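User: I'll paste a sequence; please echo it back and then give the predicted structure.

Assistant: Echoing your sequence first, then the prediction.
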Amino acid sequence: MNGYRTIFHLDELAKVPLVFANVRNLLDDLGGSVVVEVVANSEGVKAFLLTGQYAGLFREYVEQGVQFAVCANSMRALGFTRDDFPRAIRVVPSGVGEIVRRQAEGYAYIRP
């Protein structure tokens, strides 16, 4: 297991550049000694749509081992289906539930 585990909470589309910059800074600082997950709920799920403007950055981070999860409740509320998102995205029952589980596992919580 890696030494550090971090979960980033993304619930606002406007914060995507900040979240991705924070992820980049963390990877640059801690490299292979950190597990990084980004969980999106509410409007944040739009950041990971197949047709979204962040598709290139998303692929880059997936290749570096960053994990991504979107909230099923938010997906449904916004009218999206699983097919609207890349296969590398995990769909979790609720974004807040994922955050609580990860924090119980010792993940550091960051909400830019």
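The chain has one domain: 4-110. Residues 16-30 form the longest helix (15 residues).
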